[in-house]
Amino acid sequence: MHIHILGICGTFMGSLAQLAKAQGHQVTGSDQNVYPPMSDQLEAAGIALTQGYDPSQLEPAPDLVVIGNALSRGNPAVEAVLDRGLPYTSGAQLLQEVVLPGRWVLAVAGTHGKTTTSSMLAWILEYAGLKPGYLIGGVPGNFGVSARLGETPFFVVEADEYDTAFFDKRSKFVHYRPRTVILNNLEFDHADIFADLAAIQTQFHHLIRTVPSTGRLILPHGEAALEETLEKGCWSNVERFGKEEALGYRLDQADGSSFTVLESGEPVAQVRWEQTGRHSVNNGMAALLAARHVGVTLADGAAALSEFVGVKRRMELRGEVGGVRVYDDFAHHPTAIATTLDGLRRKVGNGKILAIIEPRSNTMRLGSHKAALAGSTGCADEVIWYQPPGLNWSLDSVLSEAPVPATVTESLDDIIAKVASHKGEPLSVVVMSNGGFGGIHQKLLDALAE
C-alpha cells in the first residue's frame, strides 16, 4: 500500500512513517519545512520527502493519505484530498489499524513525563529480553531512534491527549486500545483546544473506558484530578504508588539519584541512576509497575533503570566549557519548569543555576499559565526570559513577582553574551523550550569555547 503523510516531519508522524515502512508499505510524505533530525531519519529509511503542500504531490494518487493534526482546512493538499475524494485518515488511526492489531499496548499518558516514562518502560522491557516495539515523542538514549516495530506483542506508546486531526477532535490516545496504562499526572494544558481541566478529564475518561477489565491503570497517590476522573467510572485494576507508601519508594539521596523500591512496605530493589528529582523517581516507579504487569520483576526493572541513560532534550547535558554546564530541557509548563529546577537544585546544592526560558507553546502564547510562571523559577538563582516573536503578551508582567533576579530579552545574542561572561565560574545553565530556540545550546557552548 502507498501511504502518503502530510506533516511528516513531526516526531509522531515521522516515527509512524518509519514503522509503516518497516512493515513493507511504500511511504512518502511532505511538510512545510522538511528539517532535520527527522528528515535525516526519514531519508535514511528510504522515505521520499516533498517540501510544502502543493497538490501535485498527490499524483499519482496514493492508496491512503495520512493528515497530521497540525494541518487544517485551507491547506492546499488537504483541499485536494477532499475535492478528489481520496481515502484519508489520521496518524493515530493509522497506528491503531496498521501497527497495533494483536499487540499488548502499554500506554503512557499524563500532562508531564510521558516521553521520559515511555523511554524508561521500553528500556526495562528491552533489558528483560522482551524486545518491545515502541513509538515515543523523543529519542531514548538507550535506543537512539524514536520508534521501532519490535519482535514481540508488547508495544509501548507515548499516549498524547492532544486532538487527533481537524476531522477528529478526540484525543489521540483513545485510538490505542491499551491493556496497561500509566496515568502520570493531570493538569490544565493545551489551552488552544481545551476550555478547562474538566474538558481534559473527559478525554482521559474516554481513555479509561477503553481499558479491559483485565487491564491495569497505574498512577501516583494523591493526584486529585486523576482520582476525580476515575470517579466517573473505572472497570480495570488500579495500582497506586507513592513516596513511603506500602507500594512505592524511599529516597536514599535527596536529589532522587538513588531510591529504594518498596513492596508491602519492605525494600525489594534499589535504583542508582543519573536522573534527578522526585518527578524522575515517580516516572521510574510507574515504568517499573507497568513492566511488572507484563511479567518483569521489580528487581530486574530496577537493574534496567540503573542503566537508563535518559532522553534527548530532557535535562540533556549538551556540554561543559570553563566550568559552565549547559543543559537542554523540554519543559514548557510551570509545573515542569519547577520540578526540573528542583531536581537540579537538589543535585548541585548551593551551586549557581541560571534558567533560560522560552515560553513558546500554544498554551504559553495564550497566556493561560502566566500567573504561575514567576513562582515556578524559585529554585534558580537567576532567570532570563526570552520573549519569542508571536507571544501576544509581555513577559515584563512576570518580573514583578519574580522570586529571584530575572530579566526579559528579545535577543539571543544578549543571552549568549550573558552566559559567556560566566566562563571560568561553576554554573549550571538550563535552557527550557519545546522548540529549537535558534540553536542556542550550541551557540552558548561555542561562545564559551572562544
Automatic annotation (TrEMBL):
GO terms for biological process: cell division; cell wall organization; peptidoglycan biosynthetic process; peptidoglycan turnover; regulation of cell shape. Pfam families: Mur_ligase, Mur_ligase_C, Mur_ligase_M. It comes from Alcanivorax borkumensis (strain ATCC 700651 / DSM 11573 / NCIMB 13689 / SK2). Residues 2-98 form the Mur ligase N-terminal catalytic domain. It catalyses: UDP-N-acetyl-alpha-D-muramate + L-alanyl-gamma-D-glutamyl-meso-2,6-diaminopimelate + ATP = UDP-N-acetyl-alpha-D-muramoyl-L-alanyl-gamma-D-glutamyl-meso-2,6-diaminopimelate + ADP + phosphate + H(+). ATP binds at residues 110-116. The keyword Cytoplasm does not apply. Reutilizes the intact tripeptide L-alanyl-gamma-D-glutamyl-meso-diaminopimelate by linking it to UDP-N-acetylmuramate. The keyword Chaperone does not apply. Its EC number is 6.3.2.45. Residues 108-291 form the Mur ligase central domain. The lineage of its organism: Bacteria, Pseudomonadati, Pseudomonadota, Gammaproteobacteria, Oceanospirillales. NCBIfam families: mpl. Residues 313-434 form the Mur ligase C-terminal domain. This is UDP-N-acetylmuramate--L-alanyl-gamma-D-glutamyl-meso-2,6-diaminoheptandioate ligase. Keywords: ATP-binding, Cell cycle, Cell division, Cell shape, Cell wall biogenesis/degradation, Ligase, Magnesium, Nucleotide-binding, Peptidoglycan synthesis.
